[in-house]
């Protein structure tokens, strides 16, 4: 499910009646571009141009708070929990094992980080994974709004220095060591709530907002731990924006990779108005038939995902040198998934785009090479 700086979970869009959505005209303001159009020049929406301004997401507030060192310890030193070293060691070891099992490529990348940063990233990864499994795990069918409310209460207790279990304790220790703000964590939980309420994404603006909640937030959580390179001349705002864009790109790639599997469960997560632009509808997805119209539609969706990966590159190259490898590994791996969809002739309805273990391992040296430079490189 997750890979750090890229925890990308999937929205739960259920098509109850299988009917094609009506083709609504796209109302576009001068500064807003909602969807890819049939033209030789593609203009894709940035976060500040797609109807979801940065100010509305309060990202700047998060950046300002997370730029303060030891924020929790300074506000109230009495809150800082005291754990026995052996207990903490066990807590982080459990987090490490989970990350190594479920995010193998990313985990290998974390091994170059400092020990303190490794542990923090593993703790954040585990919390994000547990959050995702509330709505997408084996017990998701029993999820209630009360369960999400309780999970948010547990989050507050983590930040108050009162963890509920040993895995929570690892995150508690992390938030008292690094300037992590609680809002990105709360926003991720809000994304899970959207998952239980929303059954359709009419356009990319709606889908983008969801992607921010469930994936872009991970970038906000990760930057303070990974650190910004001392020699970087890029603004913190730009680096945080890049972290958001990588999350968006990864989330979109997950959606494109899993279209067929999700259709078998009656789920479709594609912008309905954009399907209509290509003469398609939800029924066409559920029918699992790959047509020329589908291929053209998928080309546009893949182009958009790559657009966000390109935006993410500058931030990936401006992180602390010891933290770049896992980020570049994630970025290159997800690009390879898009390549695999193309190699399958855009058949993501009956085939799953797969990147084999050998290809992943061969990609790691390239990711490492990219991580050595602060130069922005578009692939």
Automatic annotation (TrEMBL):
Recorded catalytic reaction(s): these are:
2 (2E,6E,10E)-geranylgeranyl diphosphate = 15-cis-phytoene + 2 diphosphate
Q: Name one Pfam family in it.
A: SQS_PSY
For this protein, the parts annotated as crossing the membrane are: 207-229
InterPro entries named among the record's database cross-references? Isoprenoid_synthase_dom_sf, Squ/phyt_synthse, Squalene/phytoene_synthase_CS, Trans_IPPS_bact-type, Trans_IPPS_HH
Q: In which pathway does it act?
A: Carotenoid biosynthesis; phytoene biosynthesis; all-trans-phytoene from geranylgeranyl diphosphate: step 1/1
Check the record and name the Gene3D superfamilies matching this protein: Farnesyl Diphosphate Synthase
Return the GO cellular component terms, semicolon-separated. Answer: plastid
The name under which this protein is listed is 15-cis-phytoene synthase
In its UniProt entry, the species of origin is given as: Juglans regia
């Amino acid at each position: 499910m997750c890979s750090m700086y890229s925890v990308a979970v999937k929205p739960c869009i259920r098509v109850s009646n299988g009917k094609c959505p009506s083709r609504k005209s796209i109302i576009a303001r001068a500064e807003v571009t909602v969807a890819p159009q049939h033209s030789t020049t593609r203009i894709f929406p940035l976060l500040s141009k797609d109807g979801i301004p940065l100010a509305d997401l309060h990202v700047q507030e998060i950046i300002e708070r997370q730029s303060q060192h030891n924020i929790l310890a300074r506000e109230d030193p009495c809150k800082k929990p005291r754990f026995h070293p052996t207990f903490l060691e066990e807590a982080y070891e459990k987090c490490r094992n989970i990350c190594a099992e479920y995010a193998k490529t990313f985990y290998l990348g974390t091994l170059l980080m400092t020990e303190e940063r490794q542990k923090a990233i593993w703790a954040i990864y585990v919390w994000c994974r547990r959050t995702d499994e509330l709505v997408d795990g084996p017990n998701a069918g029993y999820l209630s709004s009360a369960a999400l409310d309780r999970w948010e209460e547990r989050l507050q207790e983590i930040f108050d220095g009162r963890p509920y279990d040993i895995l929570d304790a690892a995150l508690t220790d992390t938030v008292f060591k690094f300037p992590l703000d609680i809002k990105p964590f709360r926003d991720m939980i809000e994304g899970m709530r959207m998952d239980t309420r929303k059954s359709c994404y009419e356009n990319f603006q709606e889908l983008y907002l969801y992607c921010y909640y469930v994936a872009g937030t991970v970038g906000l959580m990760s930057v303070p731990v990974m650190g910004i390179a001392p020699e970087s001349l890029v603004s913190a705002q730009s680096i945080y924006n890049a972290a958001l864009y990588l999350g968006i790109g990864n989330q979109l790639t997950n959606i494109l990779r899993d279209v067929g599997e999700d259709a078998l469960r009656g789920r479709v997560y594609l912008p309905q108005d954009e399907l209509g632009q290509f003469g398609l509808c939800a029924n066409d997805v559920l029918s699992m038939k790959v047509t020329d119209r589908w291929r053209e539609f998928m080309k546009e969706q893949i182009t958009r995902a790559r657009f966000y990966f390109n935006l993410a590159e500058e931030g990936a190259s401006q992180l602390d040198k010891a933290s770049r490898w896992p980020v570049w590994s994630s970025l290159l791996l997800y690009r390879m998934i898009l390549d695999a969809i193309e190699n399958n002739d855009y058949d993501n309805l009956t085939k799953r785009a797969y990147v084999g273990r050998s290809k992943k391992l061969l990609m790691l040296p390239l990711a490492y090479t990219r991580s050595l430079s602060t130069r922005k490189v578009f692939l």
